[in-house]
Structure formats: structure tokens, C-alpha cells
Write a structure and sequence with these properties.
Helix content: 10-25%
Distance between the termini: 17 Å
Strand order of the largest sheet: 1-2-3-4-5-6-7-8-9-10-11-12-13
Number of domains: 1
CATH topology: Porin
Radius of gyration: 14 Å
Order of helices and strands: HHEEEEEEEEEEEEE
CATH class: Mainly Beta
Largest sheet: 13 strands, antiparallel
Shape: globular
Number of strands: 13
Length: 149
């Protein structure tokens, strides 16, 4: 779960966890519970206001994400140090940067709603699609389903 905050920069928290075999279950309280392939809780993301707090399976804080009014999310590691940002642009496109400002990935949404994730070099790392019921399916770069939420 230490990877949650750092992988959120490269992709998104949900996609990063699902890409490692974790499944997410959104709960009414504003908490998303991530489960590994065997169903064990591997971590949580608790949303309150503009801040999301990430915890590992034992409840230890591994990072936070703070949404700013200008469309930028700032990610901090478990010690509170800035580890990166995500800038939401027009058309549902997001650019992820590390703590020094280097682009580490992008997420772009097409007209069908499919989100394509790319690393800092532009290589596709995965996709995320939502069906008519709201269920999200996450696939890795080869198209293998790695998670749902």
C-alpha cells in the first residue's frame, strides 16, 4: 500500500491498485476499500471534503491527495512531503508530475468514456472503462482485466 500515493501520480489510485490485482469497493461513507486478488483488504482511500487519505491494510497512513480549487491535486507521502501533482485539463485529460515537476504520466478520456493511461514516455499502461451500470473495469496494457470497482 505504500505504493498508493506514488502510483496515483503515474495513473490514478484505483487504476494503480487494480493494476496490481487489487479490487476496489466503494462504500457510502466516502471510503473506497481495496482488496487484493484473494479478497484481503490491502488498503483504503477515505474521502472527506477535498482531501483523500490513503491507508495500508493495517490502517497506517501512506499518503494523502488534496484537491485544489484550480483543478490541481497535490499528493503527499505518509510523512507529509509533496510527492507529486495531478493537473486536470480540459476534456477530462489529466497530467501527473512527480515532486520535481517531471511528467510521470497522463490520463485521457475519449468520447466513449474510456480512460487511457500513459506513462511519462507516452506508452499505454492501461485503460479504464465504465459500463451502463457504473461498474468500472481496469485493464493493463495488454488488455488483461486487472480489477473492477
Amino acid at each position: 500500500m505504500r505504493r498508493i500515493a506514488s502510483l496515483a501520480l503515474g495513473i490514478s489510485v484505483g487504476l494503480a491498485l487494480a493494476g496490481s490485482g487489487a479490487l476496489a469497493q466503494k462504500e457510502a461513507s466516502g471510503t473506497t476499500t481495496y482488496r487484493d486478488g484473494s479478497g484481503r483488504v490491502s488498503g483504503t482511500a477515505d474521502r472527506s471534503g477535498g482531501t483523500t487519505t490513503y491507508r495500508d491494510g493495517s490502517g497506517r497512513i501512506t499518503g494523502t491527495a488534496e484537491r485544489g480549487s484550480g483543478g490541481t491535486t497535490t499528493y503527499r507521502d505518509g510523512s507529509g512531503r509533496v510527492s507529486g501533482t495531478a493537473d486536470r485539463g480540459s476534456g477530462g485529460n489529466t497530467t501527473f508530475r512527480d515532486g520535481s515537476g517531471r511528467v510521470t504520466g497522463t490520463a485521457s478520456r475519449d468520447s466513449t468514456g474510456t480512460v487511457t493511461m500513459r506513462d511519462g514516455s507516452g506508452r499505454i499502461t492501461g485503460t479504464e472503462t465504465r459500463d451502463s451500470t457504473g461498474r468500472v473495469t481496469v485493464r493493463d496494457a495488454s488488455g488483461r482485466i486487472t480489477g473492477t470497482r
